[in-house]
């Protein structure tokens, strides 16, 4: 099995405690449904900075900042995409980038 990084971008934050509970349940249900495919549940990200090749530091992320991540295992990129298609990040208006982690 190959590991894949799911990078979450954008999406909206819950506006009420009830929305927060509903969103958290959706994430818990999705991750539980992944079963053994979930390697690292991950976390949301906070503020970011970007370090350029010349060493300069700027506000991170830009228009498509990473807002969280998870690591899963799947037999192929297409299989990883199939698992990511039901991610709650999509229901919040965000996107999920799926990237193969190369074993070194």
What can you see in these coordinates?
This protein is an alpha+beta fold and 104 residues long. The chain has a single domain (2-46, 63-100), classed as 2-Layer Sandwich (Alpha-Beta Plaits), CATH 3.30.70. It is built from three helices and six strands; from the N terminus they run βαββββααβ. The strands form two sheets. A four-stranded antiparallel beta sheet has the order 2-5-1-6.
Briefly summarize what is shown.
This protein is an alpha+beta fold. Helices cover 29% and strands 35% of the residues.
Descriptive keywords:
four-stranded antiparallel beta sheet; single chain; flat; Alpha-Beta Plaits; alpha+beta; 104 residues
Helical amount: 25-40%
Give the DSSP E fraction (strand runs of 2 or more residues).
Answer: 25-35%
Number of domains: 1
Order of helices and strands: EHEEEEHHE
Radius of gyration: 15 Å
CATH fold annotation: Alpha-Beta Plaits
Number of helices: 3
Report how far apart the termini are: 15 Å
Structural class: alpha+beta
CATH architecture: 2-Layer Sandwich
Unreliable residue runs? none
Arithmetic mean pLDDT: 93
CATH class term: Alpha Beta
| Beta strand count | 6
Major sheet details: 4 strands, antiparallel
Classified in CATH, the superfamily is: Dimeric alpha+beta barrel
């Amino acid at each position: 099995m190959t590991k894949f990084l799911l990078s979450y971008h954008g999406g909206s934050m819950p506006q009420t405690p009830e929305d927060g509970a509903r969103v958290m349940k959706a994430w818990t249900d999705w991750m539980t449904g992944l079963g053994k495919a979930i390697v690292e549940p991950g976390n949301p990200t906070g503020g970011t900075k970007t370090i350029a090749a010349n060493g300069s530091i700027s506000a991170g992320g830009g228009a498509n900042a990473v807002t969280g991540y998870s690591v899963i295992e799947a037999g192929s990129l297409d299989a990883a995409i199939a698992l990511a298609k039901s991610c709650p990040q999509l229901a919040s208006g965000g996107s999920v980038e799926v990237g193969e982690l190369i074993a070194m």
